[in-house]
Design goal:
16 helices; 6-stranded antiparallel beta barrel; about 725 residues; 10-stranded mixed sheet
Length: about 725
């Protein structure tokens, strides 16, 4: 019999209900006539305090509250791959219109779809919890194994033959003494309870991301955890006076902002909905698209770019423009552009869709306090603007490098309270990405949880647990799962708000006293495990942290660093000085380096650790010399220290898309050998400029694009050795 009560008090997203004495802690309830989803977070006598995961506007005292008899749980089974959920695992693909109506509910998995089940167990077999008894080929990339739910063991009394079944059909019956258990393709699991396992395994294999600064210098092991902190405000792009080409003619971003409505503000900035036709770039051609929203924020620096054809663009350092490279058109952050680079821009006849290459004459960085704007163009990835010569501006696109290239079998992405425009871009662009190994769409191995900053705060708190529970489920099938949480700061803010509504005594900066233990319990669910079925599987956690004002001493960042073993600091100063990806090599660290040395030695090169040590030494020395260069200029340095600066520049890359582990080592070995031979030449009287004029120097710079075989590497090494 479900518990029934009535609303007695409403405190924002926390509701107090009377008549709930028999309710259970963490029990799910439906609140009000609309049936809003909530969770019991405190019991006091006959009353229950309920955390409501939807807006409580228009709720009234006296409305009913009904217990559902179980905690917040997720449905796990075939049909998850490629799906997009909200923070409560409600499928967004079933929504009619553009918004989630309050009280909306739907099965997370399509219960009507038939799947071809292939049994691997037979009648009479003894099976334990976690055992694989069959499989469904869910996608071309994922074979979805049907596993016995935790807590069930015994002898198979009956198993259905190979055939088409829905996820709720009983496919196996297990006899355990006098009991019989019916097993289907799905199981439910409470998200706040880690799924059980037999034991932990020490990880000895890296999670390869393809980013040289990460894999080679600050690696993460499979089953590891890493924090990626970075400040707010790095994604917006243009100044308010910049014009955009619309169906109304050229209109400044400030004017577009004034035309918008339904403004929403948060710590990240402000957004207004806006419908206006703009010219945009899609698939290499100029088309007409409709803008959905305009954003406003602040930035502490801008990049001013002047071109030979008279264009002048002022954008944030993180803003991407279309640069011409050996591989065609490549989106490149403005902080990585240099004089001499060619940009793809509309020609004088751009109305006809023609494009031209415009050479950059000058790049300058300006510091101050700037109001900056961004425009969302759903049907394209850019818009055309400019008051003199038209230029192509790309709106903020989240590329998700690690999700695209990491050597994990399953990716679970949780957008926990991020900006609406970032999530829109993600939902538009991520399904178009391909798995680099198979060439299949990356969504065939991905599950996405979309919970943006203007959704109810309480739902952010649930979304993290929903995501990691789904990752654990695939771990239990023997897969390596990768969880990307963006951002845990938003999750912590939800904890702070809920704690305030419950009138709990606050700790530092208003966060609850149990913040540290909640962060610890989340990251502790990462690791390599021996599953109940006897396989090994892993969950790797990459948690983005967004400290307000870039203050890394605030509580969320501080506590996170206590429980993760790797730290990739995204330093805006590096981005402004044209270093991308902007992982700071002085402040970043990885405690996994030592345990992964054997893997690199056995699988890549015996001297990998020594080469890595020399690379870090050069980068540290270069960082020290930068202060002298800023004050006095590079001319005052002796030739040997100029060589250090030049070598560090060779070690960095403008945009590091993907480099295989062996190629990472070979590039570092070539550069370190160049440094050693160059140092010998300098001691003999040569200069750095003479070394740079040699063929070996240019060959190494090109090697990052054409180092595709051992033969090419050996040929380059001979040229370097002959300096």
């Amino acid at each position: 019999m479900p518990v029934r009560g009535k609303i007695s008090e409403i405190r924002g997203t926390v509701v107090k209900a009377s008549g709930m004495g028999k309710a259970l802690m963490n029990e799910m309830v439906k609140v009000g006539e609309l049936g809003l989803i909530g969770e019991v977070v405190r019991l006091e006598g006959d009353s229950a305090y309920i955390q409501v995961y939807e807006f409580t506007t228009a709720l009234m005292p006296g409305e009913p509250v009904v217990g559902l008899g179980s905690p917040l749980s997720v449905m796990l089974g075939p049909g998850m791959m490629g799906n997009i959920y909200d923070g409560l695992q409600r499928p967004l693909s079933f929504i009619k219109g553009h918004t989630i109506t309050r009280g909306y509910s739907a099965d997370p998995i399509d219960t009507g779809k038939k799947w071809k089940f292939i049994p691997s167990a037979k009648k009479g077999d003894m099976v334990n919890e976690g055992a694989k008894v069959g499989y469904v080929d869910e996608t071309d990339l994922i074979r979805h194994y049907i596993i016995i739910p935790p807590g069930i063991s015994g002898q198979i009394a009956d198993v259905e033959p190979e055939g088409e079944y829905s996820v709720n059909d009983v496919i196996i019956e297990i006899k355990e003494g006098d009991k019989k258990h019916s097993v289907s393709m799905v199981q439910k699991w409470p998200v706040r309870v880690p799924r059980p396992f037999l034991g932990r395994i020490a990880s000895s294999e890296p999670l390869i991301t393809g980013q040289r600064v990460i894999d080679s210098l600050f690696p993460i092991a499979k089953g590891g955890s890493v924090a990626v902190p970075g400040g707010f405000g790095t994604g917006k792009c243009l100044l308010p006076e910049e014009h955009v080409i619309t169906d109304l003619g050229p209109v400044s971003l400030a004017e577009l902002w004034s035309m918008g409505n339904n403004e929403f503000s948060s710590e990240e900035g402000s957004v207004r909905s806006l419908k206006v036709n703009v010219t945009s770039l899609k698939n290499g051609a100029l088309i007409h698209s409709e803008s959905a929203a305009v954003f406003r924020d602040r930035s502490s620096s801008m990049v001013r770019i002047r071109t030979s054809n008279g264009r002048e663009m002022v954008v944030t350092p993180a803003h991407r423009l279309w640069k011409i490279t050996e591989n065609g058109m490549t989106e490149t952050p403005a902080a990585c552009l240099r004089a001499g680079d060619g940009l793809v821009e509309p020609s004088a006849k751009w109305e006809l869709g023609e494009l031209e290459v415009d050479k950059i004459d000058k790049v300058e960085v300006e510091y101050g306090k700037f109001d900056v704007y961004d425009l969302v163009v759903p049907n394209g990835q850019s818009f055309v603007g400019g008051s003199t010569r038209a230029a192509i501006y790309n709106n903020t696109v989240l590329l998700h490098q690690i999700a695209s290239w990491a050597n994990s079998k399953v990716v679970v992405y949780v957008g926990c309270g991020e900006r609406g425009n970032e999530m829109v871009d993600l939902l538009k662009t991520f399904p178009k990405l391909s798995d680099p190994i198979s060439g299949k769409p990356i969504m065939e191995k991905s599950v996405m949880v979309a919970n943006v900053s203007n959704m109810p705060v309480a739902a952010r708190e649930a979304s993290i647990y929903v995501g990691i529970t789904m990752a654990e489920y695939f771990r239990d099938q023997g897969y390596d799962a990768l969880l990307l949480a963006d951002s845990t700061s938003r999750w912590a803010e939800a904890l702070r708000e809920i704690s305030g509504r419950l009138e709990e005594i606050p700790a530092e900066e208003g966060y609850p006293a149990y913040l540290a233990s909640r962060i610890a319990s989340f990251y502790e669910r990462a690791g390599v495990f021996r599953t109940l079925g006897g396989d090994s599987g892993s969950v790797s956690v990459v948690g983005a942290v967004s400290p307000p004002g870039g203050d890394f001493t605030e509580p969320v960042t501080t506590h996170t660093l206590r429980y993760v073993k790797a730290f990739w600091l995204l330093d805006p100063n590096l981005a402004y000085s044209r270093h991308y990806p902007a992982v700071n090599w002085v402040s970043s660290y990885s405690a996994y380096s030592e345990q992964l040395e054997k893997w690199w030695s056995d699988n890549v090169a015996p001297d990998f650790s020594e080469i890595k040590r020399r690379v870090l030494d050069i980068l540290y020395r270069e960082d020290e010399l930068r202060n002298i260069v800023r004050l006095l200029g590079p001319e005052v340095l002796p030739e040997e220290e100029k060589l250090v600066l030049e070598t560090a520049g060779m070690l960095k890359d403008e945009v590091d898309r993907y480099t295989a582990p062996k190629a990472q080592y070979q590039l570092m070995k070539l550069i370190i050998t160049f440094y050693q031979k160059g140092r010998e030449k300098i001691l003999a009287g040569s200069t750095v400029e003479q070394l740079k004029s040699g063929e070996a120097y240019m060959q190494i710079l090109r090697a990052r694009y054409n180092l595709r075989s051992d033969e090419i590497y050996e040929e380059l090494m001979k040229k370097v050795m002959s300096i």
